[in-house]
Amino acid sequence: MGTILAIETSCDETSVAIVKNRQVLSNIVASQIQLHRTYGGVVPELASRQHLETINLCITKALVEADKNWQEIDAIAATCAPGLVGALLVGVTAAKTLAMLYQKPFLGVHHLEGHIYASYLSEPDLQPPFLCLLVSGGHTSIIYVKDCGLYEMLGSTRDDAAGEAFDKVARLLNLGYPGGPIIDKLAQQGNPQAFKLPEGKISLPQGGYHPYDSSFSGLKTAVLRLVQKLELEGDLPVADLAASFQDTVAKVLTKRTIKCALDYGLTKIAIGGGVAANSGLRKQLLTEAQKHNLQVYFPPLKLCTDNAAMIGCAASDHFAHGHTSSLNLGVQSRLEI
Ligand code: KG4
Ligand code: ZN
């Protein structure tokens, strides 16, 4: 394993980190949340421009904070997929340019693999196999982690990602952006049993339901209809709505994940992505996991949300396995893990 300089620019965080094995030497994250807040979501063109403005400063800061110079960097990595193409291009182009300039190997990293590796950063002794639940603004995935580079996607969302559902429901309740943390806070004051909402099961052609896939768009529409009805009646119990919505999402994710772990005989579950911060999800997962003797790992929030340290950790493991990428590697908005 070597010392990796890693870059993450797949969405709205410009991040550069220096990682050695499973140790974070620096992890600079410049968030663009303020920039996109006015629009109620990430504006791709603005994201790319902001990455360009910020990236050089982040690279310098990451080196200074880690007390490293270019001679001490063994390889340069960047997230190459999936994500916003213009945004990804900024990070990948910076990484390739540095790799050429300083004659270092380059590694392109899958963004979801990065989220999986965030668990190794907070739990250096964690070993595969384990199940990873990734819940962010762009993904809701249940992944069987078998080894470095060996993953099986067992469950995913058919429409909105969990974080996206939080953001959309917050928007229709006029709560602001990003919606997840606001709903989470508001839900503490509400009654999670106030409204019964649909769990978004996926029907199978042969009958029954898909055990691990989920859908959140029906749930979002159900909240919309409820809001329209309650507004007409002149009373909008926002905290009860937030609590009921959060409780339903947490229930769906917990059920699917625990079932998946039990079906595949896995005893460890690692959580990643911004929605991993959700207090309702944490509570339900921990309670259910305990009932079944399963171990759950929640990395600290700064490693759950997008950051370059997780990308560096994945790159470091691949580099140790002798893997590097061609400088011709492109970026992709969608790519299976
Ligand atoms: O992983 P992340 O920072 O970015 C990507 O989407 O890749 O996740 C951001 C998402 C947003 O949708 C945000 O609303 C959600 O995570 N989020 C939460 C919480 N904190 C952030 N959702 C529910 N509860 C939270 N406490
Ligand atoms: Zn992410």
From TrEMBL:
<feature type="binding site">
    <location>
        <begin position="134"/>
        <end position="138"/>
    </location>
    <ligand>
        <name>substrate</name>
    </ligand>
</feature>
<feature type="domain" description="Gcp-like">
    <location>
        <begin position="23"/>
        <end position="312"/>
    </location>
</feature>
<dbReference type="InterPro" id="IPR043129">
    <property type="entry name" value="ATPase_NBD"/>
</dbReference>
<dbReference type="InterPro" id="IPR000905">
    <property type="entry name" value="Gcp-like_dom"/>
</dbReference>
<feature type="binding site">
    <location>
        <position position="306"/>
    </location>
    <ligand>
        <name>Fe cation</name>
    </ligand>
</feature>
<keyword id="KW-0963">Cytoplasm</keyword>
<dbReference type="GO" id="GO:0002949">
    <property type="term" value="P:tRNA threonylcarbamoyladenosine modification"/>
</dbReference>
<keyword id="KW-0479">Metal-binding</keyword>
<keyword id="KW-0378">Hydrolase</keyword>
<dbReference type="InterPro" id="IPR017861">
    <property type="entry name" value="KAE1/TsaD"/>
</dbReference>
<feature type="binding site">
    <location>
        <position position="115"/>
    </location>
    <ligand>
        <name>Fe cation</name>
    </ligand>
</feature>
<comment type="function">
    <text>Required for the formation of a threonylcarbamoyl group on adenosine at position 37 (t(6)A37) in tRNAs that read codons beginning with adenine. Is involved in the transfer of the threonylcarbamoyl moiety of threonylcarbamoyl-AMP (TC-AMP) to the N6 group of A37, together with TsaE and TsaB. TsaD likely plays a direct catalytic role in this reaction.</text>
</comment>
<dbReference type="InterPro" id="IPR022450">
    <property type="entry name" value="TsaD"/>
</dbReference>
<feature type="binding site">
    <location>
        <position position="184"/>
    </location>
    <ligand>
        <name>substrate</name>
    </ligand>
</feature>
<feature type="binding site">
    <location>
        <position position="167"/>
    </location>
    <ligand>
        <name>substrate</name>
    </ligand>
</feature>
<dbReference type="GO" id="GO:0005506">
    <property type="term" value="F:iron ion binding"/>
</dbReference>
<keyword id="KW-0808">Transferase</keyword>
<keyword id="KW-0012">Acyltransferase</keyword>
<feature type="binding site">
    <location>
        <position position="278"/>
    </location>
    <ligand>
        <name>substrate</name>
    </ligand>
</feature>
<dbReference type="InterPro" id="IPR017860">
    <property type="entry name" value="Peptidase_M22_CS"/>
</dbReference>
<dbReference type="GO" id="GO:0005737">
    <property type="term" value="C:cytoplasm"/>
</dbReference>
<comment type="similarity">
    <text>Belongs to the KAE1 / TsaD family.</text>
</comment>
<keyword id="KW-0819">tRNA processing</keyword>
<feature type="binding site">
    <location>
        <position position="180"/>
    </location>
    <ligand>
        <name>substrate</name>
    </ligand>
</feature>
<dbReference type="GO" id="GO:0061711">
    <property type="term" value="F:tRNA N(6)-L-threonylcarbamoyladenine synthase activity"/>
</dbReference>
<feature type="binding site">
    <location>
        <position position="111"/>
    </location>
    <ligand>
        <name>Fe cation</name>
    </ligand>
</feature>
<keyword id="KW-0408">Iron</keyword>
<dbReference type="Pfam" id="PF00814">
    <property type="entry name" value="TsaD"/>
</dbReference>
<dbReference type="GO" id="GO:0016787">
    <property type="term" value="F:hydrolase activity"/>
</dbReference>
<protein>
    <recommendedName>
        <fullName>tRNA N6-adenosine threonylcarbamoyltransferase</fullName>
        <ecNumber>2.3.1.234</ecNumber>
    </recommendedName>
</protein>
